[in-house]
């Protein structure tokens, strides 16, 4: 790492399917590309550790399935191009002129790019049920990380609660890996309510049949699938039982692990900090940046690709990444508008098909546990251990703005800067104040978006590069 300010034509943040595809497309068009990623290896969450598992753990790769193996094709294409790749790099500051700051090897460094593509993907929607802070209660994404990154499989009784395709995908993977999966508590509304959104395409029918095949295999394997509501985790020092209601009757399951999931939402930390314009998407019950067909935001040099721009899923992310790269190559003068548009046509068509299926998924698996009124004792902010009752007391005292509530309660002031509680707080406020989520907005995210130590900040000061924690221009939009 040098002390000189580094630069490139294009910086891409995030090495998931959208980020990798964008880097490959841009490099093929002659663009000077740098790819930043927090993780040690390519793949993001969906294709985490794909290169290692493909070469050294074939059995695990086979269990994770054909969709996971697609990540190897992206990784192989990436390795064939001249792309500067910076793993272990946490980008904590981006300005609207293309300057960004990142930490790598415990050192903070400034970087400049003419164009920036943010491909940080999605994050799991928090599911704050009673007892969700007990040890051995975690998200499905965390379980997938353990499996893909370390080949760790739980060996004690498991219950999965929530909804969405990922529930059945992870369930089938766990069962095939020999994990003792006891039950799935399905919290989704009846699928019959969403059949009108199902696309009449052969590929969509194949996806539906694949999902039904998973359910059939799980039932044959002895896994109970129960339509449930009011799920809660119980235990003294760790999870012991899972409480739920089915058809108005309460019941319990003994379990050592509870995995929660109710879909994913765009990761908007960087775009929020940049004051990009955002819009509330009622279909996914979350905020997302306002973008054009290429992923460009209201900040001229910033583009968003992948699920960070709106949930399209891993299948649609590469197309979004390539579209963002095509437009960046055009704006940087590497290709003409005609070349860009010709190359983009099949990508737009592919993305249209993926989004039509995603629309059905969004309606079929709308969240229920994560948007229901919370009990007063339920912790909302894990970082600061703030309960729903505490927040209601503040609201009843007259606080009506989410940043005002943050300032007086400290909810959202922890290391995650509200990533894990913002949507929950907004839901609670809209219910208590009898208003809409759009009226509540979300936290005003401030840079740096990730913790930076004094040691790292001191290194940045010693580089002689001017430090700026944000833009000097007026904010653009607000969520």
Key features of this structure:
single chain, 479 residues, alpha/beta, FAD/NAD(P)-binding domain, Arc Repressor Mutant, subunit A, 3 domains, seven-stranded mixed β-sheet, five-stranded parallel β-sheet, 15 helices, 22% strand, globular, disordered C terminus
**Whole-number tally of structural domains:** 3
The count of β-strands is 21
Structural class: alpha/beta
Q: How many helical stretches?
A: 15
Broad CATH class of the largest domain:
Alpha Beta
3D structure, described in words:
This protein is 36% helix and 22% strand. By secondary structure, it is an alpha/beta fold. The protein folds into three domains: 216 residues, FAD/NAD(P)-binding domain (3-Layer(bba) Sandwich), CATH 3.50.50; 137 residues, FAD/NAD(P)-binding domain; 75 residues, BFD-like [2Fe-2S]-binding domain (Arc Repressor Mutant, subunit A, Orthogonal Bundle), CATH 1.10.10.1100. A hairpin with a 2-residue loop joins β5 and β6. The two termini are 36 Å apart. The C terminus is likely disordered. This is NAD(P)/FAD-dependent oxidoreductase.
């Amino acid at each position: 790492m040098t002390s000189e300010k580094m630069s490139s034509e294009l910086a891409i943040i995030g090495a998931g399917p959208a980020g990798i595809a964008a880097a490959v497309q841009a490099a093929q068009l002659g663009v000077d590309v740098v790819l930043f990623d927090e993780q040690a290896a390519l793949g993001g969450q969906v294709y985490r550790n794909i290169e290692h598992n493909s070469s050294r753990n074939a059995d695990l790769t086979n269990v994770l399935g054909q969709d996971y193996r697609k990540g190897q094709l992206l990784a192989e294409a990436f390795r064939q191009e001249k792309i500067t790749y910076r793993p272990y790099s946490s980008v904590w500051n981006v300005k609207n002129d293309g300057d960004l700051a990142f930490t790598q090897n415990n050192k903070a460094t400034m970087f400049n790019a003419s164009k920036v593509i943010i491909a940080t993907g999605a994050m799991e929607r928090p599911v704050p049920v009673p007892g969700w802070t007990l040890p051995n209660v975690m998200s499905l994404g965390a379980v997938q990380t353990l499996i893909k990154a370390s080949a760790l499989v739980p060996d004690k009784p498991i219950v999965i609660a929530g909804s969405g395709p990922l529930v059945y995908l992870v369930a089938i993977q766990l069962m095939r890996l020999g994990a003792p999966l006891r039950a799935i508590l399905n919290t989704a509304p009846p699928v019959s309510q969403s059949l009108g959104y199902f696309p009449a395409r052969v590929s969509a029918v194949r996806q539906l049949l694949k999902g039904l095949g998973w359910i059939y295999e799980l039932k044959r394997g002895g896994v109970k699938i129960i339509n449930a509501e009011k799920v809660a985790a119980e235990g003294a020092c760790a999870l012991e039982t899972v409480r739920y209601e089915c058809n108005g009757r309460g019941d319990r399951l003994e379990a050592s692990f509870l995995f929660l999931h109710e879909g994913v939402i765009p990761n908007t930390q960087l775009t929020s900090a940049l004051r990009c314009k955002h819009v509330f998407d009622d279909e996914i019950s979350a905020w997302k940046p306002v973008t054009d067909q290429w992923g460009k935001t209201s900040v001229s040099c910033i583009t968003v690709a992948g699920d960070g721009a709106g949930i399209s899923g891993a299948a649609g992310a590469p197309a979004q990444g390539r579209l963002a790269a095509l437009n960046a190559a055009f704006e940087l003068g590497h290709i003409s508008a005609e070349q860009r548009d010709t190359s983009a046509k099949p990508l737009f068509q592919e993305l249209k098909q993926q989004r039509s299926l995603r629309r059905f998924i969004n309606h079929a698996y709308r969240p229920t546990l994560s948007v229901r009124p919370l009990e007063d004792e339920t912790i909302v902010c894990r970082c600061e251990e703030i309960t729903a009752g505490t927040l209601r007391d503040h609201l009843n005292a007259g606080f009506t703005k989410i940043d005002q509530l943050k300032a007086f309660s400290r909810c959202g002031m922890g290391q995650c800067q509200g990533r894990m509680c913002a949507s929950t707080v907004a839901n609670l406020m809209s219910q208590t104040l009898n208003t809409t989520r759009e009226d509540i907005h979300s936290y005003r995210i401030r840079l740096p978006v990730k913790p930076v130590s004094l040691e790292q900040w001191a290194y940045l000061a010693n580089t002689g590069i001017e430090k700026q924690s944000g833009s000097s221009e007026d904010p653009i939009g607000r969520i």
